[in-house]
Specification:
Number of strands: 8
Number of domains: 2
Strand order of the largest sheet: 4-3-2-5
Oligomer: single chain
Amino acid sequence: MSTATLPAPATTATGTADVATVDTPFGPFTTIVAADGAVLASGWTAVPEDLRTLVHPGLRPAELRARRELGAVTDAVTAYHRGDTVAIDSVPVRQRSGEFLQHAWEVLRTVPAGQPITYTAFAARSGRPAATRAAASACARNAAALFVPCHRIVRTDGTLGGFRWGLDIKRRLLALEG
């Protein structure tokens, strides 16, 4: 992984972030990026406000500026959906939470496409083998879907478990990566 989750700035964000929505085979995909190009939130929705509210209050932009595209970020989203499943790996992401969640999100970025792991294995990789529920919470609280690939985590029995954007999209993502 060439770009890890970036540390959050020390101050509260109140400025403007850029947002763009692109069509994908799985529906509209919207990304919110900070001024430095780091993804703050993303997902399969055409409603940017659905994403803005997912951003930690200390990073949440006061305003969103609509763009047709977001350069390298939009290019990565498009390439990924066309089958280049590593295109998202170098896109910087910025999320903020407690120490475990921050670390767990970084660990999620190391799970290779086409090699889903269980919540139990994810908890172990995150340094807390007994904290399966905390690992699941990291997936549930992930604001940067796709770029922090929580869809690559499955239940012990191989079933999908939850996904903010729906199990159909999770199934399709795993099939694209498989």
